Amino acid sequence: MKPPFERIVEQHGPTVLRVCRVVLGAHDAEDAWSETFLAAMRAYPDLPDDANIEAWLVTIAHRKAIDVVRAANRTALPVDELPESPTRLGIPGAGEADLWAAVSALPPKQRQAIAYHYVAGLPYADIADLLGGTVDAARRAAADGLKKLRRTYPGAIMEGVHA
């Protein structure tokens, strides 16, 4: 029997938010997080009892993030003044702006593979399904991204990863 949806949000909400922040940045992450759980809530009754809920949610978050990127690419918003900088309070890793800038500079597949594997903890098989490639390609994208991070940001040592 599946747990109540509220418990799913409590258990997996932080992981989904971290993935959204890595893929989209702090500004658009919360909207993608909300959209992820709205879509998940609608589909949850039909989800098989033996499904990997975390991978399912990250898949939805990935698709919502793609929607946000596509929408941003279609919309230009000229402004007279630059908006205020968002606060960094409560954002994990906010003191490591250089690291997040280095992650943001990675090519999309590498950035996503890093996010899904090292932030969300997904296995490479699930990442391959998300990104539409093979397990080896997902592993290579993460390895290439990590190698580039180590060159551009010397402090980028991720837990459980060896050079």
Describe the protein's topology:
Layout lengths: L4 H20 L1 H18 L9 H22 L22 H8 L3 H12 L4 H8 L3 H18 L11
Helix pairs in contact: 1-2, 1-3, 1-5, 2-3, 5-7, 6-7
Family: Belongs to the sigma-70 factor family. ECF subfamily.
Organism: Nocardia neocaledoniensis
GO molecular function: DNA binding; sigma factor activity
Distance from N terminus to C terminus (CA atoms, Å) equals 42 Å
What is the CATH superfamily of the largest domain?
RNA polymerase sigma factor, region 2, helix turn helix motif
Order of helices and strands: HHHHHHH
Number of strands: 0
What share of the residues lie within helices? Answer: 55-70%
CATH topology of the largest domain: Rna Polymerase Sigma Factor, Chain: A
Radius of gyration: 17 Å
Mean model confidence by pLDDT = 83
User: Please, how many helices?
Assistant: 7
Biggest sheet statistics: none
Number of domains: 2
Domain RNA polymerase sigma factor 70 region 4 type: 98-149
Family: Belongs to the sigma-70 factor family. ECF subfamily.
GO molecular function: DNA binding; sigma factor activity
Domain RNA polymerase sigma-70 region: 8-75
